[in-house]
Amino acid sequence: MIKVAATELMKFEGKARPFNSEEEAFQAIRRGEIKPGDVVVIRYEGPKGGPGMPEMLRVTAAIVGAGLGRDVALVTDGRFSGATRGFMVGHVAPEAAVGGPIAVVEDGDRILIDVENGRLDLLVPEEEVKRRLKNWQPPPPRYTRGGLLAKYASLVTSASMGAVTLPRL
């Protein structure tokens, strides 16, 4: 899902700044580490990784608050709400926690977001992405036992399928 709010941009190409959680990205913005032309990539916040697709409103508000709303894009496997402003791509699927390409984005990779053509492209040779995915290891789940979030993470489908739970058969 691509959201363009409070911006006229229809295309954005920039340098990837990947983070493994919303909190990591938020702290980088607070420290002034995000610059114009960056694409903030927040992964492991999708249905399985979050679990539950937390809303990225805190990060999008921090980007706007830092005066970067027109100059920085955000890509995440998490979600955003109607209050989000700026150039944002959310609900990326497959998500990082299951080995989607967002999992292997590296600092400095080029990313192109093209609203008119509905495209999100990691501008890295396909063979390099395949090599990275082959060597990728998922992080341990945030919740593994004893509660609703662990159960949800183990049964939830992709955001592209509605992030609903399906019983194991």
In short:
By secondary structure, the protein is of the alpha/beta class. It has helices spanning 22-30, 57-65, 126-135, 148-155; strands spanning 2-5, 11-19, 38-42, 73-76, 86-89, 110-114, 119-122. Strands 1-5-4-3-2-6-7 form a seven-stranded mixed β-sheet.
Structure description:
The chain has 169 residues and is of the alpha/beta class. Helices cover 21% and strands 21% of the residues. The protein has 4 helices and 7 strands. Strand 2 (11-19), helix 1 (22-30) and strand 3 form a beta-alpha-beta unit. Helix 1 (22-30) runs parallel beside helix 2 (57-65). The two termini are 30 Å apart.
Give short descriptive properties of this protein:
single chain; 169 residues; alpha/beta; seven-stranded mixed β-sheet; 4 helices
Describe the protein's topology.
Blueprint: E1 2-5, E2 11-19, H1 22-30, E3 38-42, H2 57-65, E4 73-76, E5 86-89, E6 110-114, E7 119-122, H3 126-135, H4 148-155
Parallel strand pairs: 2-3, 3-4, 4-5
Antiparallel strand pairs: 1-5, 2-6, 6-7
Helix pairs in contact: 1-2
Taking the alpha carbons of the first and last residues, their distance comes to: 30 Å
**Coarse structural class:** alpha/beta
How many DSSP helices?
A: 4
Rg, rounded, reads 16 Å
Overall, the morphology is globular
Q: Poorly predicted ranges (pLDDT <50, ≥5 residues)?
A: none
Question: What is the succession of H and E elements?
Answer: EEHEHEEEEHH
Number of distinct beta strands:
7
DSSP helix fraction: 10-25%
Largest sheet: 7 strands, mixed
* Content of β-strand: 15-25%
The largest sheet has its strands arranged as: 1-5-4-3-2-6-7
Summarize model confidence as the mean pLDDT: 89
